[in-house]
Design goal:
It is a single chain. By secondary structure, this protein is mainly alpha-helical. The chain has two domains: about 80 residues, no CATH class; about 250 residues, Up-down Bundle (Receptor-associated Protein). Helices cover about 90% and strands about 0% of the residues. The protein contains 18 helices and no strands. The longest helix has about 55 residues. The chain is elongated, with a radius of gyration of 34 Å. The N and C termini lie far apart (about 145 Å).
């Protein structure tokens, strides 16, 4: 028995010596390899850092066009993640499960990129921020949920925000679709008549020895101008209209001018104000309800709004509340701007909520109230604009008809 114990102890000692010698060899190999890499190939290290650059370009592409092509899939992803994470599944497994349900290649690639980033040590918030699919206030809400352990609940709030944001945009589009369609068709028909019909009618009337009414003479003058300069005049007019629309309503740098025009147009101002107040109440209320500090919530709100004037107002409120002022003092200091953008009744509700400690719930109620009003206002705009546009188009058609028919009646009367 004693010799067996010695053999076993010797075997253990030999294993320990072998492991100790292998550990000694490993750092020695590293010491030899490091100088070789520094001397022979200094370029691999910077190349490894530059490899993610192409991915960043792809992310920026998705950030620009993701809202157009993966909007529904984005909501589906948030919905499924909220369900899976609230059931206790870890983030990586949840991403893989959602990935298997998707059909779009772009969204699948983004989910796999998020999974790889999380496996490399990033948080869900950091991985989502890299995709640039969501606005900053959404990322902030997810970050708060991740830190507080309420990620599933906050993802449900994010989904509600996305649905409301899409509903606001749909109402704005539905309110403006009919007038834009009617004006576009009227412009196309008017350009066609001016370019192709009026020059021929002008030649007919010039050949007639008849005293023409003033409206016919105006049409003849337009026809002669188009006949002489139409090859460059009409394209110039079309290009000017497209450029004006782009500068006023589409360009990020200059669309604040179009927003100013809309805010000073009676019917449209009411609709935009109600949409912004609904967004203001719901976003700020949910951020505060999720535990976000008021300054960070106002900053996220100013970045989330689409109207520059409201964004500046929220930034001013953030600055003044950061200096220790209350909402009442901040509204009083910006009385002219705040009274134009936020009705006095809403300001009183916000001040009351701040004093009673129920600001988040009151803000959510404000958002719900104005969300209901936006639907009614959108319908009212269509109801009011429809007869006005029909009257406008009918006046143009009547002017053309009178300008063409009156000379014919004059000619028939002179012959008779």
């Amino acid at each position: 028995m004693p010799p067996a114990k010695k053999k076993t102890t010797n075997a253990h000692e030999a294993a320990e010596v072998l492991a100790h010698t292998q550990e000694k060899k490993k750092p020695a190999a590293k010491k030899v390899s490091k100088p070789k890499k520094e001397k022979t190939a200094p370029s691999p290290a910077p190349r490894a850092k530059k490899e993610p650059a192409p991915k960043a370009e792809k992310q920026s592409f998705h950030s620009r066009f993701g809202y157009l092509f993966v909007g529904k899939e984005r909501d589906f992803v948030i919905d499924q993640l909220a369900l899976l994470l609230s059931s206790g599944m870890d983030v990586v497994a949840a991403l893989e499960a959602v990935h298997s349900e998707l059909k779009g290649a772009s969204m699948k690639a983004l989910l796999m990129q998020m999974r790889d980033d999380i496996q490399d040590g990033s948080s869900l918030t950091e991985a989502l921020r890299k995709t640039k699919l969501f606005k900053d206030h959404v990322i902030t809400l997810i970050d708060v949920g991740e830190q507080s352990g309420r990620l599933g609940e906050n993802l449900i709030i994010v989904l509600q925000q996305q649905e409301k944001e899409r509903a606001f945009k749909d109402r704005l589009r539905s309110a403006m679709m009919y007038p834009v369609l009617v004006l576009s068709l009227a412009s196309i028909i008017g350009l066609g008549l001016t370019w192709f019909i009026l020059p021929k009618i002008t030649n007919l009337f010039v050949s007639l020895d008849v005293d023409l009414p003033w409206i016919t003479r105006v049409l003849m003058w337009i026809g002669m101008v188009v006949k002489a300069y139409g090859h460059w005049l009409i394209p110039t007019i079309v290009a000017s209209i497209i450029t004006t629309v782009y500068v006023l309503f589409l360009s990020r740098k200059t669309k604040f001018m179009g927003q100013w025009i809309i805010l000073h147009t009676p019917l449209l101002k009411k609709l935009i104000q109600e949409v912004e107040l609904a967004r203001f109440g719901f976003i700020l209320g949910t951020l505060l309800g999720a535990g976000l500090p008021i300054l960070q919530a106002l900053k996220s709100l100013s970045e989330a709004t689409l109207v520059r004037q409201y964004g500046r107002l929220y930034a001013d409120l953030e600055m003044q509340i950061g200096r220790g002022q209350s909402f009442s003092d901040a509204f009083a200091e910006n009385k002219k701007k705040s009274s134009f953008l936020i009705p006095g009744a809403v300001q009183q509700l916000i001040v009351t909520g701040e004093r009673t400690g129920k600001l988040s719930s009151i803000l959510v109620q404000i958002g719900q109230r104005y969300e209901e009003r936006t639907e009614v206002s959108a319908k009212n705009i269509s109801v009011v604009l429809e007869p006005l546009l029909l009257l406008f188009v009918s006046l143009i058609v009547a002017g053309l008809a009178i300008g063409i028919i009156l000379p014919i009646y004059t000619l028939v009367g002179s012959v008779g």
